[in-house]
Specification:
The complex is a heterodimer. By secondary structure, chain A is of the alpha/beta class. Chain A has seven helices and ten strands. Helix content of chain A is 31%, strand content 24%. In chain A, the strands form two sheets. Chain A has a six-stranded mixed beta sheet. Chain A has a four-stranded antiparallel beta sheet with strand order 2-1-4-5, covered by helices on one side. In chain A, α4 runs parallel beside α6. The radius of gyration of chain B is 29 Å and the shape is elongated. Chain B has two domains: 167 residues, no CATH class; 171 residues, no CATH class. Chain B is an alpha+beta fold. Chain B has a six-stranded mixed barrel. Chain B has a two-stranded antiparallel sheet with strand order 2-11. Chain B starts with a helix and ends in a 12-residue tail after the last helix. Chain B is built from twelve helices and 13 strands. Chain B is 50% helix and 20% strand. Classes of the chains: A alpha/beta, B alpha+beta. At the A-B interface, α2, α3 and α4 of A face α1 and α10 of B. The complex binds adenosine-5'-triphosphate and magnesium ion. Magnesium ion (MG) binds next to α2 of chain A.
Amino acid sequence: MNAIAAVEPDTSRRHGLVLRDVSLQHGDGPDLVRALDEVNLTVAPGEFTAVVGPSGAGKSSLLAVAGGLTRPTAGTVLVAGHDLTAGGQRARAALRREHIGFVFQSGNLLPALTARDQVRLPLQFASGGRRGRRDPRDLLAEVGMAEKADRRPHQLSGGERQRVGIARALVTEPRLLLVDEPTAALDRARSHEVVRLLAREAKQRRVAVVMVTHDHDVLEHCDTVYEMVDGRLSRHG
Amino acid sequence: MFLALRELAFARTRFGLMGAVIALIAVLMVMLSGLSVGLVNDGVSGLQKLPVTAFAFEKHVQHDAAFSRSVVDDDAVRAWRERPDVAAATPYGNSLVNARSDGGVEIDLALFGVEPDSFLAPPVSQGSRLSTPDGIVVSTTAVTAGLRVGDTVTLDRIGTRLTVVGVTTGQHTFGHVDVAFVPLDTWQRIKAGVGPGGVLPDRATRESTAVALRAKPGRTLDLAAGDAAAGTESLTLEQSYGASPGYTAESTTLRLIQGFLYAISALVAGAFFAVWVIQRKHEVAILRAMGAPAGWVLRDALVQALILMVGAVAVGAAVGVGLGAFITGGGVPFALSAPDIAAAAAGLILLGLVGAAVAVARVVSVEPATALGGNR
Ligand SMILES: Nc1ncnc2c1ncn2[C@@H]1O[C@H](COP(=O)(O)OP(=O)(O)OP(=O)(O)O)[C@@H](O)[C@H]1O
Ligand SMILES: [Mg+2]
């Protein structure tokens, strides 16, 4: 995998995620949309960052680019010192399974799998552990789902699904956790529980976390809050 | 395998229904194969069992009616005997007659006129071999139809009386009619329509339908050169099947049905997996976002398809074989052949997999970014 060259070792050690002058455009001519407009962002290991902003501002685009799902039109994305914009599809997929965890809206669990198997799934295609993988059983206990490890998604509540989704994202010991609207389907109490869990994991495991949310209630658990408007990112007052 | 097995178990109703459809197609496949083999047996088993490499017919004979139209004479037999690659050449007569036994059994017979001391004379499982002029050796299927060793049959119109002296080993039929081997001299009289007491024209004593040829061991016959020397037109044994009445049309029809069944099964399996995989599109996007290699997703889905296809085809083939065993021996020409069934099953599984692979390959390239957002 020589496509995944480690660059700037200093930055890589200090930072979980670095976005440098990142732009993402969709379409061209009159249809041109600047989903991301020269975004700069640094998230240190253990730092819990939130991004808020109106619908269509580019928040999901930010996560897609930071997670190597989409290649930006311009700029550089570094995750744990690896340049996500350097390689092709295959190299980005490899970086995702090694270094990045995703927590999707309402969990996005696979309907056929029990909670335990959801968490075991990423280990099936992870390349056998550069770092130690975490024990799915311990992880489920940690997110408070040990009792319900044999249940399938349709037998779980929204908050429980979200906890399983978080356990699934953490099982490969990622350096970067990207979270898209984790509380969209949850009530206040559940929302706080889930975000508190994320904050705790970020600290304990020294994971850089970027969470996109509409929910201003939960921002109190975050270290840094950014606001996104029309593809531009700025520090939230 | 991780996901494939769990999904099979989770969506068992859906996969079960699909499996049932594939199994039914497999049942049909086995039945069709049984009918094809049965039909081939019924149409040409009498030819298949002759120890013949090729037949030399009259020049320019119509190929699909060669056995009824062709006439060759002794000169052709002699010319073929002199060929260096021919181990044996002997006259062979073929004609269809209606007969009635003394016991009142009405039966159609395909008379194979052979010289009793030639390589064409059949071995027998009951009674004795060909020898007396009016003695015939009949197919085992004629015994099923009611003939016994010792019975006398009378040919319609010319009134020739023949006695059953022996029974062949196994089924010998030609154009769905039981074969009766008869000495060539007698065959020539019957062919010429000369009844008891009549006089056979001299020319007819030298004529037969074709020259039956057997190649020397390890040699292939040079048919073109032989034909040129003997003034004949020869067909290999397999080619001569097409000259059996109705054989070509029947086997073409069955092959066509079989072809359609293959096409349908490929479409059904392909369509099922296409729908299934499209429903899973969002899941595949999640897997890809998590970094699952495309090969992993593809392999997992193909294993799923393979398990479904193999399971369903095995069940269907077993049911088909069971049903076939039930039918075999009844009025319908039906015979099961293990290699044919295995080939049909393998073809079915392969086509199902191709259908699944096409469906999955298209979805694997889904944009992983679609896993973000979208409340599912
Ligand atoms: N594939 C695409 N093609 C064209 N335009 C796109 C595409 N994906 C996103 N966009 C546009 O890019 C902009 C940013 O979209 P994005 O999904 O990042 O917004 P968002 O902040 O996540 O919104 P929401 O809060 O509603 O989820 C929007 O104007 C959207 O219409
Ligand atoms: Mg969004």
